[in-house]
Automatic annotation (TrEMBL):
Low complexity: compositionally biased ranges: 470-482
Name the record gives this protein: Diaminobutyrate--2-oxoglutarate transaminase
UniProt-annotated stretches for the region Disordered: 453-482
Protein origin, superkingdom: Bacteria
Cofactor: pyridoxal 5'-phosphate
Amino acid sequence: MPEQLTAPAEDFDSGEAILRRQAQRESAARTYARSLPVVPVRARGMTVEGADGRRYLDCLSGAGTLALGHNHPVVLEAVRRVLDSGAPLHVLDLATPVKDDFTTALFETLPPELADRGRIQFCGPAGTDAVEAAIKLSRIATGRSGLLAFSGAYHGMTAAALAATGDTAARATTETAAGVTRLPYPYDYRCPFGTGGEQGAELSARLTAALVDDPKGGVQHPAAMLLEPVQGEGGVIPAPDSWLRRMREITADRGIPLIADEVQSGVGRTGTFWAVERSGIVPDVMVLSKAIGGSLPLAVIVYREELDTWHPGAHAGTFRGNQLAMAAGAATIRYVARNALPARAEEVGSRMLRRLRALAGHHACVGDVRGRGLMIGVELVDTTADPDDRGTLPAAPRLAARVQQEALRRGLILELGGRHSSVVRLLPPLTITDEQAEAVLERLADAVAAAEAPGAGGTGGAGRRGAGAGVPRPNAPHTGTS
C-alpha cells in the first residue's frame, strides 16, 4: 500500500530554482545537497516527494534519525499535544512534565545496571555535543586527559569529538588531537593485521592492553575509551561481540571509563534496542542522539552515578531543553519498544543482508556486505586493480558515487561512507515494509548494474559477472550468511 503524503500547505517554487539559490547562498561545506539534488516538499514513512513531483524511497532517514520514518502519526500527535497544551517550548534545563516523561521512557530501555544507578545530562542539540560532554565528564571524574579512540571512528565535528575521529582529513583543521591514542578497530574485510575474523579482533584487543600497560609505550593513562559498537560513517562495521567484551574487561580492570557512542546505532536500528546489548556489556557512559528525538534535535549522555563529580555549569547549552523533541522522542522510544521494532529490524535486515550478499555472485565489484539489523553497508571495489596480499581489491569511490546517482535516478536515496566513500549505506526506517525492502533491493541492484556497465564512468566493471542481473529472489541460490 503506497504511503499517503500530506497535501502541501503552500505552493513551492520549482526545485531547480531552489537548488540554484541554495548553491548561491549556502556554504561550500554543505554535503548531502551536492550528491542528492532533491528538494523534499512532502514525506510520509519511507516515501519522500520532491518539488519536481518525483517520489523516492528514503534509505538515508536523516542519517539514521528517523526511526519511524517521516511524519509518523505517533510523533505528530505527541508534538501537537505539546503545542496545544500551551506548555513552554524553551526551558533551558528546568524540570517539566514533558522532560520527566522522556527521561522515564528512555531509562526504561537502558541496561538495568545503568538505569538503576544512572544519571542523565541533556546536552546541545547534536550528537557531537553529547560526545563533548562524555569526554569532559570522564576527564573531570578521573583527573586524566588522555583518550583511547579507534581507526575509522566518527564522533562529530566539534573539537574534542573531532580529535577522536579517525578521519585525518576531517582533523586537519584542528590541533585538539593531542592526547588521543588511535587503536585499530576490528575491520574484518580490511583487517590491519592481515588476518581478519576472531584472530584479528583478538590482536586488536592485545595491542590495546599492551599499549595501556606499557609505561614506556608513549600512551597517557586515559580518561576514557570511546567506541562505536557499530561504526557508521566508518563504513558500517559491526564490532565482534567478543571484542566488545574484551574492551569492557580491559577498561574495567584498569579503571578506564568506557564510552559507547550509540548516536546512530541506538533505538532498535541494529536488532536490539541498544547495540551494546548484543554483546552483553554495560558501558560507563552512553552517548545518545538522532533517533531519541523522534526526528527533532536532541542529545544526551547517560552515565554511572560514580562519574557525576562535575560542578553545576560544567557543561551547559542554551538549547538543551527542546520540549517538542522530548515529546517526539518519548513517543518514538515507546512505539519502538511496544511494537518490537528491534526484532523487526533484525528480521528484515537479515533478509536484506542475505539477498545483498548474493549480489556478489552477479557483480564482482561488490566486495563485502555487512551490517546489523537495518544498518547495512555494501562495499564496492575496483575490479580493474590488483588485490592486496589477502586478495582484497582496493576501494572504488567513483563507482560508489555512480551507484548513488543511478539509485537516485531510480527513486532511491542512499548515503555513502567508509574509508574512501566506497561503501553504499542503507539506513531505512524501522517501519519499512516487506514490499519496500524488495523495492530497495531491486533498485540498488539495477543501479549497480548500470554504474558498472562499460562506458558508465565508474570503475570496477572489468571483472563483472552477470551484468544487469538483479538481486536473486529468496528461493534462489545465494552466497554468505546472515
